[in-house]
Amino acid sequence: MKVMAHRGYSGAYPENTMLAFRKAVEVGTHGIELDVHATKDGVLVVHHDERLDRTTDGTGRICDLSFEELRRFNAAKLWAGRYAPEKVPAFEEYCEWAAGEDIFTNIEIKTDNTYYPRIEEKTWETVVKYGLEKKVLFSSFNHFSLTRMRRIVPEYVELGALVEHESGVKVYPGAYCEAAGFQCYHPPITALSDENVRDCKTHGVKINVWTVNDMAGLEKLYSWDVEGIITNYPSVPMAWLAARK
Ligand code: G3P
Ligand code: MG
Question: Is the pTM of this model over 0.85?
Fold first, then answer.
């Protein structure tokens, strides 16, 4: 089972910052999950929300600011007094760093509400520029973005279909992902049933689950033999897995 650090080691460091990514690597995480948006002038940046307000001392939407403007803000606002200011990373800065690390990256294309023109092409071009083609997978709640991605990236690059919490509608995630050309299903832990797990396994679809921050969830998912978990505290499952060897 692979461990992915959700927005980096976001349980103990400012989410989606280079500090959180470095700290996740220090505890041996297999992978890192991060979120990508684009600025007004088309620069890809790593940040979760569309707006800067919650996690930085800036305000407004990323798509309304230039990269230069966005870099003035402190992305470690929520940890003030504990950590020095951090900038919102350019996706390129992350890739340059990740190229030297033995990790893979789950790149979430954040086109949930705002659609950034050509974000799929630009993200892939950056991945190629830093030679990360074999060390990435792409995920998105916007399955149109994944369909576009499927046409851009080679077949060996995996795509993960993110879904939200249980809607009450019966889903067949394995059949759906196989038909759509998505290799992975990415449900929240609250929406994964053993029936869904069976459907994915029948169709050869891998399962990566978010956000797994407790031992009960970890143990259940391990017993279900899922491929990956996405956690805010990567040190915990890494230590737990090491102890099982
Ligand atoms: O990829 C899993 C998780 O990151 C999806 O939700 O809102 O944290 O991006 P969110
Ligand atoms: Mg995400």
Answer: yes
